[in-house]
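pasting for ref. prot 1 ->
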Amino acid sequence: MNTTVAGRTLPGLAADYAGARAESYAQSIPWYAWTSVLATACISAGLYWDISWHLSIGRDTFWTPAHLLIQFGAVLGGGAAATLIFSKTFFTPGAAAKESSVRVLGFWGPLGAFLSAWGAAAMLISAPFDNWWHNNYGLDVKIISPPHQLLGVGIESISFGGIILIAGYMNRADGALRRRLSLLLLTIGGCVTVNSMVGRLQFTDRALMHSALMYLWLAIGPPFVLEAVARPTGLKWARTIVAAFYTVVFTLGVWIFPLFAAEPKLGPVYQRITHMVPLGFPILLLA
C-alpha cells in the first residue's frame, strides 16, 4: 500500500517509517521546557560570573552584569511558571485544567510550575535582603550567608521545578520527542550540577582536599542531582553526560575568564590582580 508523506508517494515499509517519523517530529517540545532550561542556564552562568567578579573586583554594587543575569533567570523562570499556572486556572476548561496538575491556594498547574514560581519569588526577595545585610553587617567574602542561602533555595526551586516539568512531559511522550526531551533534561541537570558545585566552592578548596569535610560536601547533593536527572531518561552514560557538562563549563571558565581585564576595587588586596579570576579546575566528578 502506497502512502503520501510531505507530497511524496512512498511504498510499503518506507511509507510507514516516514509517516511515523513525520508524526513524531510534528510533536514539538513545549515552550516551558525551553524557558526552564534557559532560565537555569542564565542562573548558572551568572553564578560563576558573580563569584569570579567578587574574587577579582569585589562587591562594588548590586547592579553588576552577573547579578542582573542571575535575576533575569529568576524573572524568566518565574514568569513562565506564572503564565502556565494562570493559563491552566483561568483559560483551560475544568477537566483539562486538572489533567497533570495540582491545586495550590485555588490555582491549578503542574507541580514544577509552582516550585519555579516560588523559587523566583525567593530569588527576587534575596536581592534587597542581600543589600540590607551588607549595609548592616558589612561586606563579607563568604558564599554561605542568610541572603545567599535564600537565593540558593530559590535557585534550587526553579531548577528542580524545571526538571519536574520536563520529566512530567517526557513521561507522556514517546519516540523522537521523548529522546529530545531526555537530552533537554540532561542539559538542565548539567546546569544544576554547576550550581551545586559553585555553592560548594567554600568547602572544596584545594587546601581541604586532605580533609573529610570536602568529601562530605561532595557526597551530599551532587550524586542526588546526577541520579535525579539520569534515571528518568534511561539513556546510556546519562550520569557521565551530566558530569561532563559541569566539567566543560568549569574548564571553559579557566580558559576564558583570564582573557578579560579586571582589578580590585576593595581592599585589602595582598596579590595584584590584572584579570578576571576563574573558579579553578573542576572537581573530577567524571571519575
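and prot 2 ->
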Amino acid sequence: MNKGKVIIAGAGPGDPDLLTIRAAKYLQQADVVLTDRLVSDEILKKYISVNAEIIFVGKQCRRGHSTPQEFINHLLVMHANNGKLVVRLKGGDVSLFANILDELTVLESNGIPFEIIPGVTAASGAAAYAAIPLTARGLSTAVRLLTYYKSDIVDDNYWKELAQTNDTLVFYMSAETLPDLVYQLTCNGIDPEKLMAIVQQATTPCQHVQVISLYDFDANKNNKLVSPTLVIIGKVVNLHQRFKWVENNNAGKYYFAPLTGKIKKQAVILEDVIVS
C-alpha cells in the first residue's frame, strides 16, 4: 500500500472564519483529523467530511488530561502508513510554541510525505481583535513573541533587557506565571507608560480584554484567567481604548471545552488500544 500524507495545519486563534482556505480544502479531503483542544468546534463541524475520523489529542499543560506527544506521533505514522490523508490540526499557527519539530522528525524518519500550512497566530488575532497594532509607528518598531510557562525559562539578564526594550512584548502560555512575570518587569524598572493587555480567549465570542498598568497589577484579582490567555505589553497597548471594536462579552465562559468527558474518554481509549 502506498503511504499516505500528513498535513500539519494551523486552525487560527479561535474565530472559525480565520481558518485559511488551504487548510479548509484539506480538511474536506481528510481521512483522519488529529485535532488540538484549542480548535473551534465550528471548524470541526463545518469543514470536515462526515466520513473522516476525528481524534482529539489536546493538551492542557498542568491542568487536566493531556495527550502524550509520543501517542500523537504514533497515530500520525500509523494512519499515514495505512495510506490515509491525515490532517494534524493545531490551534493558532503550527510553527509558534507547538510541537511541530517532534512531528516533523518522526514523519521524516518514517519516510512519510508532509505539508505545512500556516495559521493566524494568537498574537496577530488577539492584537487585531483588541485593536492593538503590535508595531504601530512611533510606539514600537519590533515585536517579540515569548513564553513564560515556567519560572526558569527566562534568565535575569534577559528580564533586564525585556524591561528596557521598546519592542512590544507578547507572552504566550503565561497566565499561571503572570504574577512573577509582572514582578520581574517592574523590578527591572519597566516604563510605567507601557501598559499590559490581558487577552482571554481572543477572537472568540468570549473574548475579554483587560488593560492595566503593570504597577497596578493585583495577582489576587487575576487568578481565574480562562485559557487561552495572551499577554501584550508595550506602549501600543494604549491604543486599545481608543480604537477597540470588539466589546468584552461572556466573561468567564469557556469557548474551548476542557479535555473532559467524551474528549478525555476517547483519548484514553485510544492510548489503551496502542499500549495493548
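The longest strand covers residues 5-10.
DSSP finds nine helices and ten strands in the chain.
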